[in-house]
């Protein structure tokens, strides 16, 4: 029996690539809202005893999570064998500590919620910062794939003489891996703080790289401020306008347009469907899926 993959709304393109490459059966689902806004869910495929894969884009998660959980409940009632979640972008990873008194650690609560519902989880470059590995918060088998190779491949075909730039010290490990995979140099912007509001950012060894194309790489682009500030510093240092690569383009309202208006070329993976998608994660995800399927 082939595993059945259900594609939740918003991820049709990536979903079709996974279906074609993985040879899964396509799950058929009726998902709509009642007039009062509550979700109606009906599974139209025969799912009894099947291994189920749900592909769900979890950016702007609040509106997606309840239908997803109701869907999981329906599948369990219909007697499925197992249910795995492929969430190329894993939400709620950034509130990974109590920054201010009285706040919640949402990353933990969200992980608990998903761990109660799914049998396994596959994601790409979750925001692991103070949480070092998914299994610190997820109690189900969970795998974090890395987009380093697909990014490096894209770079080799598209960018002439790249130099990878980490926008800040935290990104050093990430920038190193992409640079190593792409066989190109890297630098990390160094930040010196002279008080609460005064920060000087410099590009070490800038003179050596004026003929290179700077490529800023980060895991998430949200407001775009991190990238825009880093790009401004590069320009002040005499470098060209950079290519900005984000694994996950979650783009707060207007962020992509603002970045483009600032003359930046913005490129993302298709973890979240967006016009800036140029890097395909389907082969990476298909390989990662093998470990969960019997
Ligand atoms: C931060 O922890 C992340 O790695 C990104 O640097 C951040 O989410 C980017 O956010 P924004 O686009 O809003 O500057």
Which short descriptors sum up this protein?
26% strand; six-stranded parallel beta sheet; binds ribose-5-phosphate
Radius of gyration: 21 Å
Task: Give the cofactors and ligands.
Answer: ribose-5-phosphate
Segments where pLDDT lies below 50 for 5+ residues?
none
> Per the principal axes of the C-alpha atoms, what is the gross shape?
elongated
Mean model confidence by pLDDT: 92
By secondary-structure content and strand pairing, the structural class works out as alpha/beta
The termini sit apart by 10 Å
Question: What oligomeric state is this?
Answer: single chain
Q: Beta-sheet strand percentage?
A: 25-35%
Instruction: Provide the spatial order of strands within the biggest beta sheet.
Output: 2-1-5-6-7-8
How many distinct helices? 8
Q: Please bin the fraction of helical residues.
A: 25-40%
Order of helices and strands: EHEEEEHEHEEHEHEEEEHEHEEH
The main sheet comes to:
6 strands, parallel
Strands, total number: 16
């Amino acid at each position: 029996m082939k595993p059945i993959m259900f594609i939740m709304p918003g991820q049709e393109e990536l979903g079709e690539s996974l279906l074609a490459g993985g040879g899964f059966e396509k799950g058929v689902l009726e998902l709509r809202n009642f007039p009062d806004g509550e979700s109606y869910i009906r599974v139209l495929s025969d799912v009894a005893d099947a291994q189920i894969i749900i592909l769900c884009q979890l950016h702007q998660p609040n509106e997606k999570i309840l239908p997803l959980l109701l869907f999981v409940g329906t599948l369990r009632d219909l007697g499925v064998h197992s249910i795995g979640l492929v969430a190329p972008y894993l939400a709620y990873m950034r509130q990974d500590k109590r920054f201010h008194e009285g706040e919640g650690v949402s990353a933990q609560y969200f992980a608990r919620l998903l761990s109660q519902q799914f049998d396994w989880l596959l994601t790409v470059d979750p925001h692991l910062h103070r949480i070092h590995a998914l299994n610190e918060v997820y109690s189900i088998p969970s795998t974090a794939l890395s987009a380093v190779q697909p990014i490096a491949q894209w770079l080799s075909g598209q960018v002439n003489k790249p130099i990878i730039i980490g926008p800040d010290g935290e990104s050093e490990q990430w920038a190193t891996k992409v640079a190593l995979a792409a066989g190109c140099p890297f630098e990390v912007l160094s930040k010196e703080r002279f008080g609460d509001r005064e920060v000087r950012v410099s590009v070490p060894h800038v003179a050596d790289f004026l003929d290179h194309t700077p490529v800023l790489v980060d895991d998430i682009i949200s407001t775009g401020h991190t990238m825009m500030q880093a790009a401004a510093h590069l320009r002040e240092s005499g470098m060209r306008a950079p290519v900005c690569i984000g694994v996950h383009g979650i783009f707060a309202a207007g962020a992509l347009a603002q970045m483009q208006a600032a003359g930046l070329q913005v490129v993302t993976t298709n973890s979240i469907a967006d016009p800036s998608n140029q890097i395909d994660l389907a082969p990476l995800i298909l390989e990662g899926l093998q470990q969960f399927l019997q």
